[in-house]
Structure formats: structure tokens, C-alpha cells
Please model this.
Amino acid sequence: MTDLLVRCVNVGKTFGSGRTATVAVHGTTCDVLRGDAIAVVGPSGCGKSTLLHMLGGFELPTQGRVDWPGFAEIPAKRPGTVGFVFQAPSLINVLDVGENVALPLVLAGAEARDVELIVDAALAEVDLAGMGRRLPSELSGGQAQRVAVARVLAQRPQLILADEPTAQLDAAHGQQVMEALISVARSIGAALVVATHDLLIADLLPMRWTLADGRLTNKTGVLA
Ligand code: ADP
Model:
């Protein structure tokens, strides 16, 4: 099994055309390996989300190519192979916490008794054991984001993408969410890529890619 999950070669994305064209990402070359934990940093509008979406196959590039040697096909086409944590609350309000975590598994046709065990284990992993019957409206912002992390964990993806997952949280809760993400990614051997404009959050990850005006200007950190 290859350790190379994603390879981007001269990958770029332009939205629109002609005079209204916006180059979100200029030709970028980068790899994501199994076990990598990468912060993608830069100010708002520099292309972090667009790069993240292209890494997961959610957005197709308009230039260059993205390959996924670690996956059988474009990962976004296979539910569960890529976990995505959004900035905004992404829980379904009429479902309780356990049901929110269970939903992707149920949709994928998992057995009910397996789902229950997996959900309980995932909630325990993010320090929310016993909270399965709460409604999202009864949670703090930090707890809600940890439920979103548990929902990703339950699917055991090979690649976890998180787009400003702490942007709506205070520093302490942001740190807790990051710790949950990092420990979950490590425990299932997934690669983790987190887009953030917050360098304190980025410091929690061993690798850093810096974007400026859609260009990847620097890559630092542990080389696998
Ligand atoms: P970041 O995540 O760093 O804030 P984005 O990747 O969201 O940056 O955006 C990069 C640039 O691409 C911005 O100028 C943004 O306005 C533009 N952009 C992003 N998505 C779209 C879209 N769907 N249509 C048009 N322009 C977009």
C-alpha cells in the first residue's frame, strides 16, 4: 500500500472567465502522505479552501492534475474515504448527537448494532462519552465541533480535511477541537490537512504550507 495519498502537480483553479475571472489557486505542486498533519495557512481569500477542496476531489482543478494513488478513484466519490470538518456548525439540529454521528454510517448501510458501538467509541474519543442523547442546541460551540470530529472519526477516513474548524471558537475550545482532530487522525492513521488563518492553531501541527495570493510560497515541517 502506497503512503502517497494525494499528489498535486501544477494544480490551479480559476473561477469564472474573462474579465470576471478569479485565480483562487495558481499552479501548485504538493503531496499528502499517510500520517501527515499539515496546517495550510494564509489570510482570508488566499486560496486555502479551494486547495483543500481540490485535495479531496470536491472541486476539480482548471489547471494541472490531482492524483490519489492511495485511493481507488476520486475520494469524494466514495463516501467515508474523506472526512470533512467545516467552519460553521454542521450538525443537523433535529437529530441528537448520536444520530448526527451515526448518519453517514446509516446512509452507507452499516448494521444498527455496529453503528451503536462505533458512535459510542467515537464520542468517547472526543471526550463526549454519554452525550449521545443531547441535541445540538444543548451544546457549546466547542462541543458541537467535537461532535463533527466524532462524525468524521466514525467513518474512519484515510484523509481528514478541516476548513477553519476553530474560527468560531475561543482559544481554549479551539485548542480542544484541534487536540481531538489530531488524536483522532493519529489513532486511525489518517492524513490531516487543516486550513487556518490562525498561526497559534497552525503551531499545533508539525507541518505547514503557507499560501499567499493563491501561491504556495513555503512548505515546512517533518518530512516523512
Ligand atoms: P480562503 O479559504 O483562503 O479564504 P478561498 O479558497 O475561499 O480562500 O478563495 C480564494 C479566492 O477565490 C477568493 O478571491 C474567493 O473570492 C475566490 N472564490 C472562491 N470560491 C469561489 C467561487 N465559487 N466562485 C468565485 N470565486 C470564488
Q: What stands out?
A: The helical segments are 48-56, 97-107, 112-125, 141-155, 171-188, 199-202. The chain has one domain: 4-219. The mean pLDDT is 92. Residues 76 and 169 are 28 Å apart (CA to CA).
